[in-house]
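User: Round two. Same drill as before: sequence, then structure, for each protein.

Assistant: Same drill it is. First protein:
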Amino acid sequence: MTTQVIAAVAEFEKDLLIECTHSGIARARASGKRFGRPSSLNGEQQQVVLERLNAGTSISAVSREFDTSRQAVIRLRDKAGS
C-alpha cells in the first residue's frame, strides 16, 4: 500500500511538471520566442536565394554558392511557395 501511495504521488508530480512545461512553452511562444535551430541563411541571403531560383539556377548551384545544404534551399523554396 505504501508503494502505491508513493507511485501515485510520483505520477501526480510528473503530470504537474508536464503542465508547467507546456504553459512555459506557450508563454514563450506568445511573447515571440523562436524555438529550434537558427536558420543557416539570414533574411537578405534568403531573398537572394529565391531570386536565383526564380532566375532558373539549380538548387545544387545555389546551395554551393551559399555554402548550405540542398535541403535548406528546398525548404526555403517550399516555404516561399506556400
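Second protein:
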Amino acid sequence: MNHCALLNETHDARAQSWLESANRAGDDFPIQNLPYAIFRRSDSGEEFRGGVAIGDQIIDLAALAKLSVFETPAALGIQAGALSSLNSLMQLGPNVWRAVRRALFDSLREGSRLQAALRSCLVAQSGAQYSLPAQIGDYTDFYASIYHATAVGRLMRPDNPLLPNYEWIPIGYHGRSSSIGVSGQTVRRPQGQLRPPGAARPVVGASKRLDYELELGIFVGGGNSLGTPISVGDAEAHIFGMCLLNDWSARDLQAWEYQPLGPFLAKNFATTISPWIVTLDALAPFRAPFVRPEGAPSPLPYLDSQGNRDAGAVDIRLEALIQSAAMRERNEAPHRLSSTTFRHSYWTIAQLVAHHTVNGCNLRPGDLLGTGTQSGPTPGEAGSLLELSAGGSRPIQIGGDEHRTFLEDGDSVIFRAWCEKAGAARIGFGDVQGSILPANP
C-alpha cells in the first residue's frame, strides 16, 4: 500500500466545483470528498436510494443513473449505488469505486460539460432524510485504543490495567446489528441486571451510568470466502469506507456482566452511526506512518507489512460534544467534551480486517467494524465519560451550572470528524447525533 500512488487529480486541493457551496472554506463535502449515503426527501413517500454529498447538496444517484451519461465501469457503479442500500456497490470493488469517484469529480468540476445534467440531480441536504447506508449483516466492535484500554483497565483493575494479550492481538466482540441506527436515533435508557456497590445480590433496573463511546466505523466492501484469510497487505481493497460511530454503553450493567465473555446487554441496546461513508480514496492525502508507543512489541507477521508501516495510520480528527435539554431550551450550543485523532489508534484498519479473517472468518459486503473508543494520551482526548469523569468520581461542567458524570435523560451527544492539513482539501464526515429517552416504566 503506497498512499502516494493513490493520489491523483481528484485530490487536487486547487480543484473547484461549479456548485458554489462545495467551495466554501471549512465545508465537510468539497469536490475532493464525495461520500455516500442512503436518503430520500423528508416527509415524502419516495424510495430510499443512494446519494453522494457535494457542498450542501446530494447527487441523487437514481436520477443520475437514468440519464445514462457515463460509461462502464462508472455507469455500473452508479446503477448499483442507486439502490436502497449500498451493498451492491460495495461488492463491486475498488476499480469500480474509483471509476465512479473520477466520473463524479470530472462532472462536478468547474467547466464540466455535464453541469446541467448533474444540476438536475441535486437534492438539498437540508430537505433530506437518511437511512442506514447498508444492510449490516454482521457487526464487530474492536478495542483499538491502548489509551482507552489502559484508562478503563485502571478503573476496573488498578494493579493490572492492561491485560497481557492487548499488545499482541486486536481485541473485539460480536455486536448486535439489529439495533444499529442512523444519526438522529433516540436511545431508550436500558434496563438490565446490575449489582449496586456493596450489595450482596444483583437487582434489575435502569442504568444509572449510561455513556457514549467515540468511535469510527469501517464498512466492508468486497468480502472473502469462508476459510480464506485476507492478508494485511490486501485488507484495504476490502474496505469501502468509514463513518462515525457511537457505541452507547451502560457501564453499571457492563461491570457486572463483562466477565468472563465480555459485553452483552451493556452494549446491544443501541449503536448510532453517521449517514455518510467517506471512502478510503478521499482519505488518501491524510495517511501517515503507523507508529506504536515506545517500547511496544512489533506486530506478529500476519499483522505487519511495509505498506502498513509506511502509511497504515489515518489522521482523522475527532470530537465529542453534549447538549442537555436545558441547553437546548436556552438555545445554547453543544459543549465540547473532548477531541483526539485516530492516529493514536494502536491497531490500523488493515490490521483489524487481517485479524478478523486470519482464522478463515468470512466478511461480507456491508459488514461493519467498530474501531473501539478512540482516546489519546492526554486527559482532554478521552473518548468516553467513564474516562473523563474518572469512573464517575469527577463531575464535568457542561454549561451553565450543569455537570455530568454520566448521561442523563434528554441529553444529546454529537460526534464530528474531519481531516485537515496544509496542501490538501479539508475532508469532513458530517456528524452523528443521538438523544437519550427515559427508561421504559
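The chain has two domains: 3-131, 139-437.

User: Perfect.
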